[in-house]
Amino acid sequence: MDRSEAKGLVHIYCGDGKGKTTASVGLAVRAAGAGKRVLFAQFFKDGSSSEIKLLRLLPGVETMHCKTAPGRYSQMDESGRARAKADYGCLLEDALAAAREGADLLILDEAISSCNYGTICEETLAAFLETRPAGLEVVLTGRAPSERLIALADYVPEMRKLKHPYDNGVLARRGIEF
What we know:
By secondary structure, this protein is of the alpha/beta class.
């Protein structure tokens, strides 16, 4: 086994464009196809999107979601924000514990956004990245990662929006955007 296979790397898929979750799903499918164990945890999403339905059917893939109603954090009231913080904190802890028990790939979809809103603790996430099991590959998605998370990453591709149908009033479509 060469060195690149022995050490798991950290990916950050970020930016204001479409494709961050899609890229992480592609990597999950690739890893599962190679017989790897994949944990796919989502923040701010309820697990009803089309890609999750397929991931659940793949051997070796486990999906995890928050217990609170998903949605825009900016539109939550104070009790919703408090509930989201408690539930997302538990989801992060559960995902990190499960990853320590033998996962090959951990995807934390919208973890960066969750850190930015304070619904998960960036310190907890960073400490995990610094001490993760040697072979664990980790993917974080979301907008505007902190300098600290970028410094801990090995890959940081940025999806940049040049044009998007939403700007012209086209809402997200099942099977395309979700």
